[in-house]
């Protein structure tokens, strides 16, 4: 079998025409694992050949809106498309704290919609959902497994956000690490150690440093391109997929600046400055294909 | 302007009518073809109309037939738009969603069966029309 990593959204809170909100999909056979659900996640899932109904589980990294704003859409669409009431319950995993609290409350405002649709579809006005919270771990810790696939979480550093996590997905084909939002930190290194692909959020510090002092705060909680390069070089990770890029690159020249800065950090592996739906296929511990849109 | 439309059991559903110096646009929201939409559309240059191919939906399993109770049938849209003399109709919220040119043509054919003679646009996302002094100066497909 193969394992496919697809970035469903490469955007940030600052909207652009071509970038959906944060999200990555990891597929191994029928196992479809989605990480975060930013704006337009449902549309991107469909374009990737998956769907809310196909998701085995969805994992959240933290409670910033750009990672969550598409979540209700995923859950409500899963319910709406379940015409014959035959889908398995939606499986949602989140770190305890504010992220979990969001999940517990997120369907409340859809009460009237669920009730009126129930008049037609004759189903409980309540999406079937299993919500699983876990305490943000201090070392990579398994939060989900099925057969030979497992998902580990680790706290990352996105303060003042509390309990932000990144993930590590292990399949027979290899290891994928997903940073969520974080500074480059030892916690991220622990997730990425031995990984075949790291999906890393990336910020160009030079650009942000040129802003007025009161507009630079994001430097304090995102991942600097050069430090990413240094870290993944030290870890000898063969491939990095950059996402959640600040500022969003819109030309090849702007994309090249991301590559240049990661190289300045000493990295010699493969770098993909991702657009939405860019994918990497892992086969037995090596990258078999890269599908860039 | 807003006007009530018929999307029961949803309560309080409305459609809109937008008037600018260039012309009038009506937007159905979700509704049956009804006198209320006619009221919003009277004299409009463009109507953005939700559209359902009732014949297709009635071939769906019975559990899905409720859709015809509160959406706008393509043929009835054609009849209403022709009666009102609307020059352009943009179809949206398409059920079932057309994915080929042939499936799109099915929507247009239905509207023509309702004897509509104006312009029909079976919309994709970001399709646009431009009005200039009540004349349609551009269609961006």
Essential attributes:
A: alpha/beta, eight-stranded mixed β-sheet, seven-stranded mixed β-sheet, 9 helices, B: 141 residues, alpha/beta, two-stranded antiparallel sheet
**Termini Cα gap of chain B:** 27 Å
Helix content of chain B: 10-25%
State the end-to-end CA separation of chain A: 23 Å
Major sheet details of chain A: 8 strands, mixed
**Which sequence of strands runs across the widest sheet of chain A?**
6-5-4-3-2-1-14-15
Largest interface: A-B, 6 and 8 residues
Radius of gyration computed on alpha carbons of chain A = 18 Å
Number of helices of chain A: 9
| Uncertain residue segments of chain B | none
**Oligomerization:** heterodimer
- Range of strand content of chain A: 25-35%
Q: Shape of chain A, please?
A: globular
Q: Helical amount among residues of chain A, as a percent range?
A: 25-40%
Overall mean pLDDT of chain A stands at 96
> What is the SS-derived class of chain A?
alpha/beta
Number of strands of chain B: 8
Q: Runs of chain A with pLDDT <50, length 5+?
A: none
Give the SSE string of chain A. EEEHEHHEHHEEEEEHEHHEHEEE
Main sheet specs of chain B: 6 strands, mixed
On the 0-100 scale, what is the average pLDDT of chain B? 95
Structure, described:
- By secondary structure, chain A is of the alpha/beta class.
- Helices cover 26% and strands 30% of the residues of chain A.
- Chain A contains nine helices and 15 strands.
- In chain A, α8 crosses α9.
- The longest helix of chain A is centred in the C-terminal third of the chain and has 13 residues.
- The mean pLDDT of chain A is 96.
- Helix content of chain B is 25%, strand content 32%.
- In chain B, α3 packs across α4.
- Chain B has a six-stranded mixed β-sheet. Chain B has a two-stranded antiparallel ribbon with strand order 7-8.
- In chain B, a hairpin with a 2-residue loop joins β7 and β8.
- With 141 residues, chain B is of the alpha/beta class.
- Chain B has four helices and eight strands.
- Chains A and B meet through α5 of A and loops of B.
């Amino acid at each position: 079998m193969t394992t496919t990593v697809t970035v469903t959204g490469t955007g940030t809170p600052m909207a652009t025409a071509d970038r959906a909100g944060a999200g990555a999909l990891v597929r191994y056979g029928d196992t479809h694992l989605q990480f975060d659900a930013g704006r337009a996640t449902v549309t991107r899932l469909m374009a990737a050949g998956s769907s809310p109904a196909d998701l085995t589980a969805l994992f959240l990294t933290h409670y910033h809106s750009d990672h969550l704003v598409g979540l209700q859409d995923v859950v409500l669409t899963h319910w709406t498309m379940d015409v014959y009431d035959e889908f398995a319950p939606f499986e949602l995993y989140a770190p305890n704290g504010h992220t979990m609290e969001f999940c517990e409350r997120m369907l409340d405002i859809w009460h009237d919609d669920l009730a009126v649709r129930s008049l037609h579809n004759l189903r409980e006005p309540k999406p079937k959902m299993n919500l699983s919270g876990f305490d943000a771990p201090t070392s990579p810790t398994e939060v989900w497994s099925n057969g030979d696939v497992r998902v580990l979480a680790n706290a990352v550093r996105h303060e003042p956000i509390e309990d932000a996590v990144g993930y590590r997905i292990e399949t027979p084909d290899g290891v994928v690490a997903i940073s969520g939002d974080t500074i480059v930190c030892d916690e991220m290194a622990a997730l990425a150690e031995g990984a075949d692909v790291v999906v890393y959020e990336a910020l160009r510090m030079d650009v942000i440093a040129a802003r007025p002092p009161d507009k630079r705060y994001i430097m304090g909680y995102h991942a600097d391109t050069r430090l990413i390069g240094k870290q993944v070089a030290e870890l000898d990770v063969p491939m990095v997929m950059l996402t959640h890029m600040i500022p969003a690159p819109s030309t090849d020249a702007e994309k090249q600046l991301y590559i240049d800065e990661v190289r300045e950090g000493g990295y010699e592996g493969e770098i993909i400055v991702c657009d939405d739906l860019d994918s990497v296929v892992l086969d037995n511990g090596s990258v078999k294909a890269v599908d860039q849109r | 302007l807003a006007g009530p439309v018929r999307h029961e059991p949803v309560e309080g559903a409305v459609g809109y009518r937008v008037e600018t110096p260039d012309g009038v646009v009506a937007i159905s929201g979700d509704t049956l073809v009804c006198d209320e939409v006619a009221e919003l559309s009277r004299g409009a240059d463009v109507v953005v109309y939700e559209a359902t191919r009732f014949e297709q939906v009635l071939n769906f399993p019975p559990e899905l037939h409720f859709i015809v109770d509160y959406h706008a049938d393509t043929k009835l849209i054609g009849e209403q738009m022709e009666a009102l003399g609307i020059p352009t109709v943009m179809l949206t919220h398409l059920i079932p969603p057309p994915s080929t040119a042939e499936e799109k043509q099915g929507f247009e054919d239905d509207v023509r069966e309702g004897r509509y003679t104006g312009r029909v646009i079976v919309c994709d996302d970001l399709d646009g029309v431009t009005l200039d002094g009540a004349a349609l100066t551009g269609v961006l497909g």
